[in-house]
Amino acid sequence: MMFHVRPLKPKRNLRFVKLYIFPFFLMFLIYTLTSLLTATSLQYHLSSSLMKQTNIHVPTEYFVDLLAAEMTSMESPHLTNKKIQSLIFELATNVKIRDNRSLLGREIPGLSIYNTEIAVAGRGTNLTTLPVESPPPSPDQLEETEAAIPNQSDASQKSNEGTAPADPDAVKNSVLIYHSHSWEAFNPLLNLTKSSQDPASTNIQDNVIGLGEILKTELEAKGIGVEHDETNASAELKKKNWNYYQSYKLSREVIADAMASDKNLKYFIDVHRDSLGKELTTALIDKQSFARLFFIVGKENQQYDKNLQLAKKLNEALESKYPGISRGIFVKGKSEGDGVYNQDLSDRAMLIEFGGVDSNLSELKNSAKAFADVFSQYYWKAEEVSTQ
């Protein structure tokens, strides 16, 4: 008696694969991928850039209000359906109801430069007086020029006559002063037949490096150790074949090297100058002329909140003692500038712009001295607390 095995029909073969082979293969694939993703040696983490951006731009109080809608113990008298509706509208359209710039900014060329957020407004600060970042300098501007004033280091020493500065060798450096745009200069310090809208120079007597040296001297007179980096940023960018927009990448290397070589550094100050003219960048305080200053805080980093709080404390102290010296605190994201400004490296990082293109030496010295005065009070108070 013979038995004949009938071959499986094509439909049955397909059904067998679907029921048994495919699920087994799928489970094996999932198991393999899960094992790879959870391996201790793997440093990659899955994340959603959309969720990250949502968390950055949506205020914390909105999340609290949404929780309160479900948890009666968290109910707030300020919660309204209108508030939640406005949040949903903003998330869906990327248009802020109370900010016309969010509606017109993408439609009108050039309006996007006014996206800078004013965290604290100084005297006369509004959307029409926002800071103006210097454009890339031309090669002609970076040619060595003869200084129109005496050596600034000598001048800064004269400004401290009668003050007994601390011995720099006996004090540990806790402040780093550096310059991402070291070429930014000041018209009154240059031998120019005609003032420039954006003066630039590699001569440290004319540019912000000279200002940084004045600030260093003032801080050292208060007993604070300072390291001042005088890197010629334009020359280094050219040497590396980098462009102007990589200047913060260059200064990041400066900071990293300084932090690696000196563990005592706690505060990092990037000194710039604004591109606006005399009227908006000068203040008369007690019959003395000061170069007005302001803070820039990058919001695209995890240290944003702490750096913003530091700027607010210093700004408040400056305005209290020298009314009108500050133009305020400005917050910038990626769409308005670098967005980080190397402030992710420390929760005590500052970008400060002193004066403008027409600020003279006397005004710059007065402002550097005022900032050193206020900063030293904050510094020594913080040191006292940390040692308790």
Automatic annotation (TrEMBL):
Q: Where are the transmembrane segments?
A: 20-42
What are the boundaries of the region Disordered?
Answer: 150-169
Where in the sequence is the signal peptide annotated? none
Protein keywords: Membrane, Transmembrane, Transmembrane helix
Q: Which InterPro entries match?
A: Spore_II_P
Q: Name one Pfam family in it.
A: SpoIIP
Regions of biased composition (Polar residues) lie at: 150-162
Quote the NCBIfam families the UniProt record gives. spore_II_P
User: What protein is this chain from?
Assistant: Stage II sporulation protein P
